[in-house]
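Retry 2 of 3 after timeout on previous attempt. Resubmitting structure tokens to design endpoint.
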């Protein structure tokens, strides 16, 4: 584009493409005229552009960007409508921040001038959307925010935003875009040049890494608690080989991503209690809350090693899990470095063999217990049974399952990197449906399944999600586990007050969602395949029919009437 000029609004999209952004998920408003005109202008000039997608609700846009990142490993972009759109996107920002997901958030800013300048305010909304601190809506959830002041800042500020988002620890950033600035012109000559600013990737200090390797090599009862996966595909595979080779127990306490195959001989399940009580070295692998302090007792003699992009989780004001040693860095690079350091340590082969046999037996018993619970006769359909049926239907297929208060991980067979994600610990509901859409967009070759409770489905703005799926030809399988209540809320109340009035009540206050809508009709409004299942024996065939529909290019929804948790 040598010698050409573009409006600042038109420069945004080719610059994002040069930075490696694949998708821009956008919900437009009255602040968007220079953005829309600029996009058309850039396309007419032959610029390389990311795929710009119209998403009719910001929560859906944020979830799709999150899901697309999980599949690609690259930060995606979201464009929101001034302050009101930013408010709608705030839950997605909280989810992304909690999970260290990089994302470029942008929203228009109502014009700052009332006349006399191109792009100035025209209609009452220009006054009604004025805020003293628009970025304050998401500042706690973002690593960096800025308001564009001049059109020539488009390139350097997008470079800076992208580099900060992708730096360790990763996370969302926010750029505010005043309308008048976007209407002005900039030189387009360098708009597709390489980034002027590179992301920062930190790694553990060599001495600390060696100390961690010494401790693990000498440990008699080592334990790893992993919540957020094991890095990329290579480090995921290396991690599985390493823990088996050394006989190290791995616990998946409240995981948000799969770190190890569910049938791995060292995967001792989701309960850390018996292993924490005896462990002499505990590795906390990228785990925000690695155990429940009031219920799980850590061996007071144990050494605790915290490992992750931000091993002390500095965003959490109160997080006092011990950290006798901390290894900071992206898991995909820190794990291989630790594994390599361990290879240089002496091994007690006899002790390792004893550990391996013990872990294999314990892991086998845990799998058998969960399998028996999943297939046990029940008066209705349990979430565990749904997980069991899904695992069987997906066996041998490249697939990803998102679970948001849906099927529990112990019930479903999962073996591969990126094959399992659970709702972020931030608790921003409505995550799994749009995340599944983003994942399917980025990885169309995969079977993508999202399982969720009925409350989570309603929080996802399902009409908007179904519209997007039909418009873009995205065909995941959506499984709504309908127990007509806020099961997580009821469980939390019963946990704190097991003998209280609410637990003894026929209907616990503020938890019921009856009468339930017919969610299949919501799906069918957008021409999706939909079926309701009440009979346990009918579920496996329904899942097969639904997956066949998705493989033919049609989103499928199964509403399963499930028993209370």
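Retry 2 succeeded. Sequence:
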């Amino acid at each position: 584009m040598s010698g050409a000029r573009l409006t600042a609004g038109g420069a945004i999209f080719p610059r994002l493409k040069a930075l490696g952004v694949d998708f821009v998920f956008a919900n437009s408003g009255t602040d968007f005229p220079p953005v829309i005109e600029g996009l058309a202008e850039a396309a007419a000039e032959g610029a390389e552009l990311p795929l710009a997608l119209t998403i009719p609700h910001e929560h859906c846009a944020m979830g799709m960007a999150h899901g697309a990142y999980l599949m690609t490993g690259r930060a995606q972009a979201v464009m929101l409508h001034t302050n009101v759109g930013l408010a709608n996107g705030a839950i997605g920002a909280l989810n992304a921040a909690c999970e260290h997901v990089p994302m470029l958030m942008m929203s228009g800013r109502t014009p700052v001038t009332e006349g006399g300048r191109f792009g100035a305010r025209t209609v009452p909304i220009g006054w009604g959307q004025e805020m003293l601190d628009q970025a304050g809506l998401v500042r706690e959830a973002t690593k960096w925010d800025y308001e564009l002041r001049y059109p020539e800042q488009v390139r350097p500020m997008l470079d800076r935003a992208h580099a900060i988002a992708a730096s360790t620890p990763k996370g969302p950033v926010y750029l505010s875009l005043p309308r008048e600035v976007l209407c002005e012109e900039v030189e387009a000559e360098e708009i597709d040049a390489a980034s002027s600013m590179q992301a920062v990737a930190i790694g553990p200090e060599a001495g600390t890494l060696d100390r961690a390797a010494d401790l693990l090599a000498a440990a008699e009862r080592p334990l790893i608690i992993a919540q957020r996966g094991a890095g990329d595909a290579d480090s995921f595979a290396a991690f599985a080989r390493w823990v088996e080779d050394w006989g190290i127990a791995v616990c998946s306490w409240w995981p948000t991503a799969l770190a190890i195959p569910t049938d791995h001989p060292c995967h001792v399940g989701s309960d850390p209690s018996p292993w924490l009580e005896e462990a002499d070295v505990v590795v906390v692998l990228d785990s925000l809350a690695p155990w429940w302090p009031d219920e799980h007792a850590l061996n007071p003699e144990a050494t605790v090693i915290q490992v992750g992009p931000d091993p002390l989780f500095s965003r959490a004001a109160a997080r006092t899990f011990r950290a006798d040693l901390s290894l900071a860095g992206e898991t995909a690079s820190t794990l291989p470095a630790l594994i390599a350091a361990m290879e240089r340590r002496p091994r007690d082969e006899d002790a390792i063999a004893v550990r391996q046999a013990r872990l294999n037996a314990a892991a086998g018993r845990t799998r058998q217990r969960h399998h028996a619970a999943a297939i046990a006769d029940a008066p209705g359909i349990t979430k565990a049974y749904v997980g069991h049926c899904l695992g069987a239907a997906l066996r041998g297929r490249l697939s990803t399952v998102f679970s948001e208060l849906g099927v529990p991980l112990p019930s479903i067979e999962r073996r591969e990197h990126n094959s399992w994600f659970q709702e972020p610990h931030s608790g921003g509901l409505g995550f799994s449906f749009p995340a599944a859409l983003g994942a399917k967009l980025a990885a169309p070759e995969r079977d993508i399944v999202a399982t969720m409770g009925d409350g989570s489905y309603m929080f996802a703005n399902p009409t908007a999600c179904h519209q997007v799926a039909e418009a873009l030809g995205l065909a995941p399988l959506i499984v709504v586990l309908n127990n007509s209540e806020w099961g997580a809320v009821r469980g939390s109340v019963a946990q704190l007050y097991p003998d209280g009035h609410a637990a003894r009540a026929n209907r616990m206050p503020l938890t019921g969602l009856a009468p339930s809508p017919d969610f299949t009709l919501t799906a069918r409004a957008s021409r999706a395949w939909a079926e309701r299942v009440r009979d346990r024996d009918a579920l496996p065939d329904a899942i097969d029919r639904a997956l066949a529909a998705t493989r033919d290019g049609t989103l499928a929804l199964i509403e399963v009437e499930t028993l209370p948790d």
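Attempt log closed. The chain has three domains: 5-187, 206-364, 376-561.
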